[in-house]
Amino acid sequence: MRYSALSLLTQALRGHKGWTPVWRDPAPKAEYDVVIIGGGGHGLATAHYLASRHGITKIAVLEKGYLGSGNVGRNTTIIRSNYLLPGNTPFYELSMKLWEGLEQDLNYNAMVSQRGVLNLYHSDAQRDAFARRGNAMRLAGVDAELLDREQVRAMAPFFDYDNARFPIQGGLLQKRGGTARHDAVAWGYARAADSRGVDLIQNCEVTGFTMVDGRAVGVETSRGPIRAKKIAMAVAGNSSRVAAMAGMRLPIESHVLQAFVSEGLKPMIDGVVTFGAGHFYVSQSDKGGLVFGGDIDGYNSYAQRGNLPVIEDVMESAMALWPGLGRVRMLRHWGGIMDMSMDGSPIIDRAPVEGLYLNAGWCYGGFKATPASGFCFAHLIATGEPHPVAAAYRLDRFASGRLIDEKGVGAQPNLH
């Protein structure tokens, strides 16, 4: 079924009794051309682009829970391409361009809203750093605008400009950035992949790999063995655990990243704002809740929940930036499992095990990268060669020293 204003009107007149399921619930087949482990945003996007761009449709996406139960449904929904380094800028700009045409491509309302992303700065040195990043963005064809304090005040007069511990001096604005509805992104990619014949298999946990002469030729699952010509991993914070089943040890640590939602409020803040004096970012959802995020929990964990110190830190940053939030009640918080790489940048590459492909190490950037990640991973799987904009995301860069350290804090995952 194709969604349109006409189909909506027709179904309304018929009492909405003619809607069809968004995707099938097939039983797993014995063999596929490609098996994708992970039914989140990156795995589903990879399946969609393999089918739509490369004509490969004999694909199974295996998800141990329900589709979208991992990080794609556990984030703060921000999309942006305001990166500094050459290895990252073209990749995330491709992702932004794919976001801009995503709803037409998928025939699904992913609620992509280019409301702008504003990074605040609070010192001369930080202004210089943001000016450098903005110049690098513009040289790469990405929109960027450096604002002074009065320009920021005109956009967001409710912040603390004069009496704060960290007075706001200005900000770097990317107007094309914004937000998207995280669940709808997963559902849209799932529906689009299913419509091209991809089998989306839920409640199917991978428990091991079938190896022949050192090559991965299939997976063992909770629903039986499945053979495959190619196997792709896109399991985010579980990358290390799944890779260990194939005898690999990845340069990744898993950490919890918490997110928070307040009670519903009238429209207050148009875009996404990040606090330059602490790791804090805020936007407002279409339901009215303020969506907050901050630092990862500093310890390694596979739990989808966080602890109190980070909650306190995020709320302290919120109050430092926006004292008016002091009387707002928090509704809920949750955690996603981040696959933190050694340089804070991702990996899209062939694995050392023949027949196995790796998509991991997304750190904080996984959601915004969803379209380009799937697009480039599909290109790698289909052609055997990396996509040009993802060529720097090789696994062996950690051994060769070609790191992409966007944050500049060294090879320590919990600092990225």
Description:
It is a single chain. This protein has about 425 residues and is of the alpha/beta class. Helix content is about 30%, strand content about 25%. It has eleven helices and 18 strands. The strands form three sheets. Strands 1, 2, 8, 9, 10, 11, 17 and 18 form an eight-stranded mixed sheet that branches. Strands 5-6-4-13-14-15-12-16 form an eight-stranded mixed sheet. A two-stranded antiparallel sheet has the order 3-7. A hairpin with a 5-residue loop joins strand 17 and strand 18. Helix 2 packs across helix 10 and helix 3 packs across helix 10. The radius of gyration is 21 Å and the shape is globular. The chain starts with a helix and ends in a 16-residue tail after the last helix. The mean pLDDT is about 95.
What oligomeric state best describes the polypeptide chains here? Answer: single chain
SSE arrangement, N to C: HEHEEHHEHEHEEHEEEEHEEEEHEEEHH
Return residue spans where pLDDT drops below 50 for at least 5 consecutive residues. Answer: none
How would you describe the shape?
Answer: globular
Major β-sheet annotation: 8 strands, mixed
Gyration radius (Cα, Å) is 21 Å
Q: Estimate what percentage of residues fall within beta strands.
A: 25-35%
- The helix/strand class is alpha/beta
Number of helices: 11
Helix content estimate: 25-40%
Mean pLDDT: 95
Q: How widely separated are the two ends?
A: 43 Å
> Would you count the extended β strands for me?
18
Short characterization:
The protein is of the alpha/beta class and about 425 residues long. It has helices at about 5-15, 40-55, 90-100, 100-105, 125-140, 150-155, 180-195, 240-245, 310-320, 370-385, 395-400, and strands at about 30-35, 60, 80, 115-120, 145-150, 170-175, 180, 200, 205-210, 215-220, 225-235, 250-265, 270-275, 280-285, 290-300, 330-340, 345-350, 355-360.
